Task: inverse folding
């Protein structure tokens, strides 16, 4: 079958290990389902994998991709939940399973004609959501949903700062926060991305690092080093930072610990979301009409171009491969 996979790992030049080619058809173990992939979205996670973060050399070759929407063996249109649990896990929040993995880490990913996943990982795709839109949800959008409403506990009327505009997670955060009745501030490095942020729901957009006119209830962080200090300085006393990524690096010059204790701030980690939260997210889009911002849609064969655009950082929204 057609597939986009990592053949080798290269920290400096991630595209060097990327292959657009053929891989054997997967076999579904007992209790797993085969999904014919119609659309699969790219995440920064796929670039990290090519750089060797989260993907080990002994797992190669590995088909990349966490996100997919497609059709199962019974003809149902489905969205694929990307978190694969250890079968022995009995807790209710599968994101806390210490042996969990994401598709494309231990099990083959979604950038292929077919992906196999535990049957429980299939969520029905509503008719009103296109395959391309649905493919954006399992990683970036689910992460944003959990950051805002589960880990962040945000309520209508509260204010939130989203660090970054162009990313898959940041566009999801802006759209979902606005749909849920929050006051939304965002920052970006790119002047030309400001208008897009306003279009998808930000009330005000600032340059990265620029002082906000108010202190906010919560900050959503995926950038890390480049924005951490600004995030801490932007919070009201008692505010919280929810962090799910460190695109610019995890090492900060100043962790601002004095601010953290003196202003009684909370720093909250967040990762992916549960299968039920993915279902709730799908229902939220259904009822609000909110939809993922798609930067580019391209055939799977052109995946290399999509990866290059993500590495350049010029995108605003999701890059989606179609099959
Ligand atoms: N924990 C989880 O479960 C989870 C799930 C999904 C993603 N993540 C992580 O979250 C991060 C974002 O993922 P993504 O797929 O949305 O990536 P992406 O599409 O590449 O987005 C990158 C974002 O970071 C901003 N950015 C990058 N470098 C910056 C810098 N030096 N200064 C300020 N802003 C900067 C960009 O904003 P502008 O271009 O607008 O400035 C953009 O919004 C990644 O690190 C990813 O690994 C974690």
Result:
């Amino acid at each position: 079958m057609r597939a986009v996979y990592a053949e080798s790992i290269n920290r400096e030049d991630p595209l060097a290990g990327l292959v657009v080619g053929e891989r054997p058809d997967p076999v579904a173990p007992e209790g797993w389902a085969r999904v014919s992939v119609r659309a699969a979205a790219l995440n920064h996670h796929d670039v990290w994998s090519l750089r060797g973060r989260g993907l080990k050399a002994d797992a190669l070759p590995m088909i990349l991709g966490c996100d997919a929407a497609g059709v199962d063996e019974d003809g149902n249109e489905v969205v694929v939940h990307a978190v694969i649990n250890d079968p022995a896990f009995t807790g209710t929040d599968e994101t806390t399973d210490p042996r969990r993995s994401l598709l494309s880490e231990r099990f083959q990913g979604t950038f292929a004609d077919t992906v196999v996943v535990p049957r429980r990982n299939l969520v029905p795709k509503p008719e009103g959501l296109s395959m391309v839109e649905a493919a954006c949800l399992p990683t970036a959008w689910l992460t944003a949903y959990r950051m805002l409403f589960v880990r962040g506990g945000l309520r209508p009327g509260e204010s939130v700062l989203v660090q970054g505009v162009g990313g898959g997670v940041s566009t999801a955060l802006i759209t979902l926060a606005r749909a849920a009745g929050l006051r939304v501030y965002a920052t970006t490095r790119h002047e030309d991305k400001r208008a897009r942020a306003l279009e998808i729901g930000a009330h005000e957009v600032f340059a990265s690092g620029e002082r906000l006119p108010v202190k906010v209830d919560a900050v959503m962080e995926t950038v890390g080093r480049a924005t951490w200090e600004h995030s801490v300085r932007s919070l009201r006393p008692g505010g919280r930072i929810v962090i799910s990524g460190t695109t610019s690096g995890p090492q900060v010059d100043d962790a601002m610990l004095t601010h953290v204790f003196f202003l009684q701030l909370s720093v909250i980690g967040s990762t992916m979301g549960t299968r039920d939260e993915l279902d709730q997210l799908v229902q939220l889009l259904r009822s609000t009409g909110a939809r993922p911002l798609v930067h580019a849609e391209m055939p799977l064969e052109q995946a290399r171009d999509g990866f290059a655009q993500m590495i350049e950082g010029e995108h605003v929204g999701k890059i989606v491969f179609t099959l």
In short: The CA atoms of residues 1 and 109 lie 13 Å apart.
